[in-house]
Amino acid sequence: MILHSSSLARHNQPEPDETAGDVQRSYLDALQLLERLHRLMLDLVKDEFERLGQQDLTPVQGMILFNLGGQQVSAGELRSRGMYQGSNVSYNLKKLVDMGYVHHERSSLDRRSVRVSLTLRGAEVRDRIDALFSRHAELLSMSGVLDDPPLQDVNRQWQRIERFWSDQIRYIY
């Protein structure tokens, strides 16, 4: 019996349903991993706060300070920058202002809009979290964990997924 290369190609390729099922399983695995990584990141921040005696902040509030950085932004801009799982950004910003970590001021152009920025106290917390992430990046780099695939390629893939999700939300309305 003589098999043509096209026959061999068909026999070596997975069935369409198997491929779709594999892609869906991989996608769902990635979503679960992303959620677990986010929770673990918040746990790392919480542990760092406990180690430093920073009792007054939640990990989400710490990440808001970290993502705010040295810029002055609106609450909406801040919300789009970070993942504040199960939290109310406006509530947390109000708490951060009350505790002296964030300064807020009304926009001179649009009085309804509030711009927020870090106070010196907030910048100190941001720097502590930045130092934590820098230590982790250095340890991961030394261990080779980030080499295969390169983290830049992984990030590019997540950015494409982010764009896809954003487009899906946009097209609903």
Automatic annotation (TrEMBL):
Domain (HTH marR-type): residue spans on this chain: 27-163
Annotated Pfam families: MarR_2
Organism: Paracoccus pacificus
PROSITE patterns: HTH_MARR_1, HTH_MARR_2
Region Disordered, residue ranges: 1-22
PANTHER family cross-referenced by the UniProt entry: TRANSCRIPTIONAL REGULATOR, MARR FAMILY (PTHR33164), TRANSCRIPTIONAL REGULATORY PROTEIN (PTHR33164:SF102)
Organism lineage string: Bacteria, Pseudomonadati, Pseudomonadota, Alphaproteobacteria, Rhodobacterales
Biased composition (Polar residues): 1-10
Superkingdom of this protein's organism: Bacteria
Keywords: DNA-binding, Transcription, Transcription regulation
Alphabetized InterPro entries for the sequence: HTH_MarR-typ (IPR000835), MarR/SlyA-like (IPR039422), Tscrpt_reg_MarR-type_CS (IPR023187), WH-like_DNA-bd_sf (IPR036388), WH_DNA-bd_sf (IPR036390)
Name by which UniProt lists this protein: MarR family winged helix-turn-helix transcriptional regulator
